[in-house]
Structure formats: C-alpha cells, structure tokens
C-alpha cells in the first residue's frame, strides 16, 4: 500500500547528517527527495557531501540545492566541528550522481501546493537550519496546511547552547527561519541538543558496533566519521563519547520509543538580544500563543545503539 505522504530530508551535509541519512536508507525508509542548505559547511559542499553519501549507499534519491544564506544576518558554519570538507576528511567514492536542476524551494513548494489540492502531505526531517522550509511558508503562508509532520533537530530544552551559552547551532544559523516554522501549528517533534549530549554513545560501545559491522565500504565510511567526531568529543568534554544529534533525530523518527522523556509546550525563538540570539525558550506555563510541540528531553540510549547498528548493518549487508 503506498504511503499517503511525501517524505523529505532537509540537511546541511555534515558528519552526523551523513550518518543519519545512512541510517534512514539502511532502515528501508522511503525518502522521496532531499533538500540541502548552508550550515555545517557552505551549500555547495553540503550538496556534494550528500551526493557522496548517497553513492556510498548505492541510493539514487533526488537532491535539490536550497538556501545558501540565512534570512537575516551573516552566515556561520561549523567546519571547526566537521572538518573543512564537512565529513571529517573521509575518502570519497567516484560516482555520477548529480543534484537536480530544481531548487529546494520549488520542490517543497510544489509538494505543499499539491497537498492543498488533495495530494499527499509532506513529512520532513530537518537536520540543519530551517531556511528552506521557512522561506516557502513565509512566501505562501497557506501552504502550512500541506505539512503533515516535522521532526527537527535543533534548539535546547534546558538552555544549554552548543555554540553560544544560549543557542544551539542549527537555530543560531537562522533564528528567523526557526521562528517562522515553530510559530506554525504543525505536528512537530523537536530533538534538541541536550539529549544528544547526555545520552551520547561511549567509545567502547561504538568500537563494538563497528567491530561487528566488519569491513564493508559503508561501515568503514561511517566508522571514519565517527572516529573523527569522537576525537572532537575528547577535546571538548574530556571523555571518549560519540555525540550524534542528527542520528538521534533519525532514530526518533524510526522508533518513537527512542524518546524516553518528553516536554510538551510552546517553543519561542529569540531573534535579538546581546547574548541570547538563537535561543529556544520553552513556554511551560502557556504564557504565549506559541503552538504546542513535543520536545525530547531524554533518549533511550540502548535503543539508539540498536537502531544505529541495525540500520548500518542492513546497509553494509548490501555490499557483502
């Protein structure tokens, strides 16, 4: 029986984006198209990274280039986290995959317009800045009715930023875009920064996963990136941890039981302020008209581990 929705992934092409995409493909999740955006790296590099990841996965999914800059303010990046190439210097495959000639804006707009006419609605996993979706909704506000569900990696649930003291990276990249999306009454699940840190995977657990996965091309591709990120974790948190925000969002999408504890309330986005630009503020008491969404507070780490290993194993088995 065909799905009654269109599923898309919106990504800024970093290490954890690539691993999240590999998990989704390994799970058998049907991805109708992918949109790319600036964020971890610039738009061109993000798009290349996603195409290279698809090549590793032997997956031919339409890729649409999107926003190269935020709605307002200067563009920032996270090459200091993901490396200059965005994927930790991993070896790239040779392939013939190319991005679509259609823009992300047009691809998203066309799905939402068709939904307004009775077609399948859009479900989307956003693992980068929210600029692509925000620009469509700002241009044609009525198209919000065509969005069935959003899973979004971004923000904080206890105010612990990972770039500034208050702001998480994806939101800080384009606070105006996040505000435009979170102010809409859409069924939204927010996967913030803190659970990816609090429920990070210990290094010995990661070693066990990759030992069992063996030496297939996808497994070695993922292992290189995970090793790169573990070194970053040692530098910042003085522990051997694998912190993967985007794969946590993918795992929550694949199995809702990954979400061990949820906060349900409105989410406000600060677009000004000397110290708080990009902060997500939770309206626990309902003091504003912010639409209610679900925010992951804690994750079930053993479930995340099983999903990560299981999906990568399924992907790797195709190369044996």
Describe the structure.
The chain has helices at residues 15-27, 43-56, 79-82, 104-116, 131-139, 169-173, 175-182, 193-198, 203-213, 217-237, 245-254, 301-317, and strands spanning 5-11, 33-36, 63-65, 121-127, 147-153, 188-191, 201-202, 241-242, 259-269, 280-283, 292-299. The longest helix has 21 residues, at 217-237. The chain contains twelve helices and eleven strands. The radius of gyration is 18 Å and the shape is globular. Helix 1 (15-27) links the parallel strand 1 (5-11) and strand 2 (33-36). It is 41% helix and 18% strand. The protein is α/β, with parallel strands linked by helices and 320 residues long. The strands form two sheets. Strands 3-2-1-4-5-6-11-9-10 form a nine-stranded mixed β-sheet, with helices on both faces.
Summarize the helices and strands and which ones pair or pack.
Elements: E1 5-11, H1 15-27, E2 33-36, H2 43-56, E3 63-65, H3 79-82, H4 104-116, E4 121-127, H5 131-139, E5 147-153, H6 169-173, H7 175-182, E6 188-191, H8 193-198, E7 201-202, H9 203-213, H10 217-237, E8 241-242, H11 245-254, E9 259-269, E10 280-283, E11 292-299, H12 301-317
Parallel strand pairs: 1-2, 1-4, 2-3, 4-5, 5-6, 6-11
Antiparallel strand pairs: 7-8, 9-10, 9-11
Helix pairs in contact: 1-2, 1-10, 1-11, 1-12, 4-5, 5-7, 9-10, 9-12, 10-12, 11-12
């Amino acid at each position: 029986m065909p799905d009654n929705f269109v599923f898309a992934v919106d990504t800024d092409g970093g290490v954890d984006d690539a691993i999240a995409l590999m998990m989704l493909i390994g799970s058998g999740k049907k991805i109708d198209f992918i949109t790319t955006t600036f964020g971890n790296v610039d738009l061109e590099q993000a798009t290349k990274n996603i195409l290279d990841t698809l090549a590793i996965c032997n997956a031919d999914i339409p890729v649409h280039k999107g926003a190269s800059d935020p709605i307002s303010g200067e563009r920032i990046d996270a090459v200091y986290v993901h490396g200059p190439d965005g994927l930790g210097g991993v070896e790239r495959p040779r392939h013939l995959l190319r991005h679509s000639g259609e823009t992300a804006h047009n691809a998203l707009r066309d799905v939402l317009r068709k939904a307004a006419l009775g077609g399948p609605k859009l479900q989307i996993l956003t693992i980068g800045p929210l600029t692509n979706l925000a620009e469509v909704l700002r241009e044609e506000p009525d198209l919000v009715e065509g969005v069935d569900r959003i899973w979004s990696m971004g923000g904080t649930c206890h105010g612990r930023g990972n770039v500034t003291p208050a702001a998480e990276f994806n939101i800080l990249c384009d606070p105006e875009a996040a505000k435009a999306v979170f102010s809409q009454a859409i069924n939204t699940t927010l996967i913030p920064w803190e659970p990816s840190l609090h429920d990070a995977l210990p290094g010995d657990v990661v070693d066990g996963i990759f030992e069992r996965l063996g030496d297939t091309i996808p497994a070695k591709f993922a292992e290189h990136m995970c090793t790169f990120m573990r070194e970053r974790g040692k530098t910042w948190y003085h522990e051997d941890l694998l912190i993967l925000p985007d794969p946590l969002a993918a795992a929550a999408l694949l199995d809702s039981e990954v979400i061990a504890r949820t906060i349900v309330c409105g989410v406000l986005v600060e677009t000004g302020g000397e110290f708080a630009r990009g902060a997500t503020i939770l309206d626990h008491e309902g003091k504003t008209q912010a639409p209610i969404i679900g925010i992951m507070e804690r994750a079930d780490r053993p479930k995340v581990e099983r999903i990560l290993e299981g999906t990568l194993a399924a992907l790797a088995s195709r190369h044996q």
